[in-house]
């Protein structure tokens, strides 16, 4: 039998519960550095991972540069504040944001439910596209479409734990698959003719492709799947998130994001961001 919410003891429980929820919300809000503080300090702190080229790289002056740095600099310029780039890695980028060591975080922050539970996302900055990478010639069988991979003559090579592995298990179970530990080894296998293709995120293979000489690469037109990547901000930091959303919309509308992408990746974004003013 359900208890009566009108009893004094139950009312006290409801009041205490509401107060606790309000206190938690206030605590979470207090952790978020609002727009007013960013503007008053005249500094935007952006976490960028320099080990994800070309999203983040060290330039010849040992300074962090790359696609993310260019985007962060333009956001800071439009906010009329200075930019402070803080080096982060994949494991510590969200803790840095939660502990107020940075105001925003970039670096292939794919939008996931798990992350959305602990941080907030801006509108998408870019996408990541899973594709098939093969060679113009020298493969065991011609590879013109993803379905061609499901052939016992096809030799696939993959980095362990990457998104291509489960896709192959589900869609190309008849192919031969070799799993290696890193991208240089996988590209070497394809360069030496020991493998015909791989399935991976295009943005992860653009730089390795350029670094391998003597191979005419071919990226199949069909995108197997796409993910959305935004800029991370502290939970409940709506004031900062809202203004960055407006800036990102303008950066997409004016073509700044697209031009910056081509500057660093050398090709247009494979999956384009649709223009939606009602964000």
Helix and strand composition category:
alpha/beta
What's the CATH class of the largest domain, please?
Answer: Alpha Beta
The coarse silhouette is elongated
Annotation field: number of helices: 10
**Using only CA atoms, what is the Rg?**
23 Å
Strand count, sense and barrel status of the largest sheet are:
5 strands, mixed
Q: Which architecture of the largest domain does the CATH hierarchy give at level 2? A: 3-Layer(aba) Sandwich
Low-confidence blocks of residues:
10-30
Oligomer: single chain
Termini separation: 45 Å
Number of domains: 2
CATH superfamily of the largest domain: Periplasmic binding protein-like II
Q: Roughly what is the average pLDDT, rounded to an integer?
A: 88
- The number of E-state strands comes to 13
What is the fold named in CATH at topology level of the largest domain? D-Maltodextrin-Binding Protein, domain 2
Could you give the order of strands across the largest sheet? 4-1-5-13-6
Helix content: 25-40%
Strand content: 15-25%
The helix-strand sequence is: HHEEEHEHEHEEEHEHEHEEEHH
How would you explain this protein's 3D organization?
The structure is a single chain. With 279 residues, the protein is α/β, with parallel strands linked by helices. Strands 4-1-5-13-6 form a 5-stranded mixed beta sheet. Strands 7, 10, 11 and 12 form a 4-stranded antiparallel beta sheet that branches. The protein is built from 10 helices and 13 strands. Helix content is 38%, strand content 20%. The protein is elongated and about 65 Å long. The chain starts with 7 loop residues before the first helix and ends in a 14-residue tail after the last helix. The longest helix is centred in the first third of the chain and has 24 residues, at 8-31. It has helices at residues 8-31, 35-41, 67-79, 93-98, 113-116, 164-171, 183-191, 202-211, 238-253, 256-265; strands at residues 43-48, 57-58, 64-65, 82-87, 104-105, 119-121, 126-135, 155-159, 176-180, 197-201, 217-219, 225-229, 232-234. The chain has 2 domains: 29-125 and 230-265, Periplasmic binding protein-like II (D-Maltodextrin-Binding Protein, domain 2, 3-Layer(aba) Sandwich), CATH 3.40.190.10; 129-225, Periplasmic binding protein-like II (D-Maltodextrin-Binding Protein, domain 2), CATH 3.40.190. A hairpin with a 5-residue loop joins β2 (57-58) and β3.
């Amino acid at each position: 039998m359900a208890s009566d919410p009108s009893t004094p003891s139950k009312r006290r429980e409801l009041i205490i519960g509401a107060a606790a929820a309000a206190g938690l919300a206030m605590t979470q809000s207090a952790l978020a550095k609002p727009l007013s503080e960013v503007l008053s300090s005249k500094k935007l702190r952006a976490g960028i991972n320099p080990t994800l080229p070309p999203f983040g790289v060290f330039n010849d002056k040992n300074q962090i540069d790359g696609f993310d740095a260019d985007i962060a600099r333009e956001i800071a310029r439009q906010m009329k504040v200075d930019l402070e780039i803080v080096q982060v890695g994949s494991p510590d980028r969200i803790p840095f944001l939660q502990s107020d060591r940075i105001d925003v975080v970039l670096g292939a922050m794919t939008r996931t439910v798990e992350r959305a539970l602990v941080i907030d996302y801006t509108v998408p900055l870019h996408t990541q596209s899973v594709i098939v990478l093969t060679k113009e010639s020298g493969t065991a069988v011609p590879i013109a479409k993803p379905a061609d991979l499901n052939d016992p003559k096809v030799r696939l090579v993959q980095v362990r734990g990457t998104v291509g592995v489960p896709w192959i298990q589900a869609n190309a179970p008849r192919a031969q698959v070799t799993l290696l530990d890193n991208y240089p080894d996988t590209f070497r296998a394809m360069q030496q003719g020991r493998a015909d293709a791989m399935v991976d995120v295009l943005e992860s293979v653009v730089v390795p492709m350029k670094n391998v000489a003597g191979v005419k690469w071919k990226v199949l037109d069909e995108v197997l799947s796409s993910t959305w990547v935004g800029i991370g901000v502290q939970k409940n930091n709506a004031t900062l998130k809202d203004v960055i959303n407006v800036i990102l919309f303008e950066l997409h509308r004016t073509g700044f994001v697209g031009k910056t992408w081509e500057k660093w990746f050398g090709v247009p974004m494979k999956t384009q961001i649709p223009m939606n003013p009602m964000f």
